[in-house]
Write a sequence for this structure.
């Protein structure tokens, strides 16, 4: 069972990113983490191969030099091998470009049964790469699974949360299944995992290695600018006796806000 | 050459310790403190991911890491809860005598099964009448055939009653002072071993502290560490190795107090503006930061010396003494920044202050550390370190 997890490196969800000159100031971000939905995919994939008693998890990540640390964390959690797609041409990709690069890398890796990314990156929340990747690879696609329940007769059964219940979906392999929040908290890497991560194979590929023409990777979708919602005006606190406050509140709602 | 760059593994270890401490320890710290409860479930989880027994060699089931790596973890844990950290670090203190002085057979017999489960250990040195005056101990041993028989009482023993192993220092004859001391490994199920009541402490309340009573406790001669009379040297060498870890804990407590003060002072408004705008508060924050940063560097240096196998007593005593004094000052100032709210248990800073106090007392009071530092200076040992 060969599972490939396209994994994105995103700013730590616990920190607030700054917006400067109409763009997110990514250069100011100090802590980067595994995209949480990709982390859920790693956890579910580890559990799946533990249940099957065999299997291999390969991480594929597009990112700058520093992304290696995030990749090592996935290896420390238990993934077996990783590919780091590193090239200046990969720096400002849109979702289509990312899917193109990932598809080229996955085709070059060659052996896969299941491509299992998070359903979206929590950085730009686009949720497009997985679907486009399936298209490029000519594979069937199941989106927003909470887990893959079983593998049988060359098929995978994915479990999807639905309004008030669950759907169980069967898809022939190989396939792309995207992961939403799973039922299990992603595990901590172990000390042994951290110490062993450096010994696991990590291959770096650039655009040339993947036979990609940088011109093909020019963004089609242009992000014009990013802005914060306007700051809300501070609320007013009315003080005094309850009867007095109530009278004042009614007056404000009627005369100033004009809602009653 | 000097480098403060951590290796990739060290950074990953610190990140793991930070994530674990903030997710698993910090949310439970107030409750564990209030109830004085032993954190068994945290110990279990920390053991599962390999964050216990870091300095025990890998061959005997430990982490195979150095004191420096242990300091990285201790700072992160203590920033979440000093009491939980004391529970964890007590293992390191208790197992170091076995790592330092044990034979291969002893390590296989005691360390390997110990590390294979979420076990705790206790270092039994202090006595009711022998605190700073270690050589004044009255717990005695006598040899009978192939056995040693131990009698006496040890005081303020971390993890007592929860531990699987007790490393005990006893004397052949109190008149011999430090020359009469030997060290023994006593498993928890040894007949004659019993415990006093759980101490109701000011801080580090998640850690369990009791007296340990030895009444005709018999252990095989195999359980003696080193030769008879080596006990004093084993205890001192152990403390030389453990001091950087204590300093790192103090840095962690101080760092947490600084962080809390930094956040609170930007939210709390007085005279129509955040109190962080006032120079009086800014100076306190700056002094806290100066303390945290300088204490960390001395701690790292002391840990590095220990791991290099270089002479470390002078540097590690400075680290322990300085970092714990810094923690006391920084946490006291944090309560001041919080004002009345700081004095309330609704906020975490009064706990930091209570926890910081013990750091100046245990594993050698800061007065003893100053004696050690002064002796090293006067003997010329401090030169070239």
């Amino acid at each position: 069972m060969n599972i490939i997890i396209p994994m994105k490196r995103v700013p730590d969800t616990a920190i607030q990113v700054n917006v400067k000159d109409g763009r997110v100031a990514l250069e100011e971000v100090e802590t980067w983490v595994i995209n949480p939905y990709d982390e859920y995919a790693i956890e579910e994939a580890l559990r799946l191969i533990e249940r099957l008693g065999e299997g291999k998890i390969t991480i594929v990540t597009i990112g700058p030099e520093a992304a290696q640390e995030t990749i090592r964390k996935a290896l420390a959690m238990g993934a077996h091998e990783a590919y780091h797609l590193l090239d200046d041409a990969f720096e400002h990709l849109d979702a289509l470009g990312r899917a193109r690069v990932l598809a080229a890398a996955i085709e070059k890796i060659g052996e896969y049964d299941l491509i299992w990314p998070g359903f979206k990156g929590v950085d730009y929340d686009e949720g497009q790469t997985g679907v486009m990747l399936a298209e490029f690879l000519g594979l069937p696609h199941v989106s927003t699974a909470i887990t893959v329940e079983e593998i049988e007769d060359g098929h995978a059964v994915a479990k999807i949360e639905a309004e008030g219940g669950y759907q169980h979906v069967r898809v022939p392999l190989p396939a792309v299944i995207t992961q939403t929040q799973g039922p299990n908290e992603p595990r901590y890497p172990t000390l042994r995992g951290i110490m062993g991560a450096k010994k696991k194979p990590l291959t770096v590929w650039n655009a040339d290695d993947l036979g990609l023409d940088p011109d093909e990777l020019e963004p089609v979708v242009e992000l014009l600018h990013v802005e914060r919602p306007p700051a809300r005006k501070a609320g007013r606190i009315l003080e005094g006796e309850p009867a007095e406050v109530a009278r004042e509140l009614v007056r404000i709602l009627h005369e100033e806000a004009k809602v009653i | 050459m000097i480098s403060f760059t951590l290796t990739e593994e060290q950074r990953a270890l610190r990140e793991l310790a930070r994530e674990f401490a903030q997710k698993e320890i910090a949310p439970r710290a107030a409750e564990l403190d209030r109830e004085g409860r032993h954190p068994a479930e945290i110990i279990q989880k920390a053991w599962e991911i390999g964050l216990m027994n870091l300095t025990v060699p890998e061959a005997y089931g430990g982490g195979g890491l150095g004191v420096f790596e242990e300091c990285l973890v201790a700072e992160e844990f203590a920033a979440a809860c000093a009491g939980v950290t004391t529970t964890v670090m007590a293992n390191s203190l208790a197992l170091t005598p076995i790592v330092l002085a044990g034979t291969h057979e002893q390590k296989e017999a005691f360390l390997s099964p110990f590390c294979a489960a979420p076990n705790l250990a206790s270092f039994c040195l202090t006595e009711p009448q022998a605190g700073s005056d270690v050589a004044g101990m009255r717990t005695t041993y006598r040899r009978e055939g192939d056995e040693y028989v131990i009698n006496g009482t040890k005081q303020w023993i971390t993890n007592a009653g929860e531990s699987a192993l007790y490393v005990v220092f006893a004397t052949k004859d109190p008149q011999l002072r430090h020359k009469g001391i030997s060290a023994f490994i006593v498993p928890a199920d040894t007949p004659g071993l019993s415990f006093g009541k759980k101490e109701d402490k000011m801080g580090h309340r998640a850690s369990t502290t009791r007296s340990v009573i030895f009444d005709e406790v018999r252990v095989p001669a195999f359980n003696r560490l080193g030769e008879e009379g080596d006990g004093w040297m084993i205890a001192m060498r152990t403390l030389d190795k453990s001091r950087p870890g204590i300093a790192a804990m103090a840095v962690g407590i101080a760092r947490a107090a600084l962080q809390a003060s930094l956040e609170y002072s930007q939210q709390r408004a007085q005279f129509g503006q955040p109190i962080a705008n006032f120079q009086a508060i800014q100076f306190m924050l700056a002094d806290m930061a100066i303390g945290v940063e300088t204490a960390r560097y001395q701690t790292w240096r002391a840990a590095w010396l220990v791991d290099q196998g270089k002479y470390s007593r002078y540097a590690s005593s400075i680290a322990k003494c300085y970092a714990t004094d810094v923690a006391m000052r920084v946490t006291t100032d944090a309560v001041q920044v919080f004002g009345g709210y700081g004095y309330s248990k609704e906020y975490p800073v009064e706990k930091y202050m209570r926890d910081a106090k013990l750091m100046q007392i245990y594993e050698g009071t800061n007065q003893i550390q100053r004696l050690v530092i002064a002796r090293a200076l006067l003997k010329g040992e401090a030169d070239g370190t």
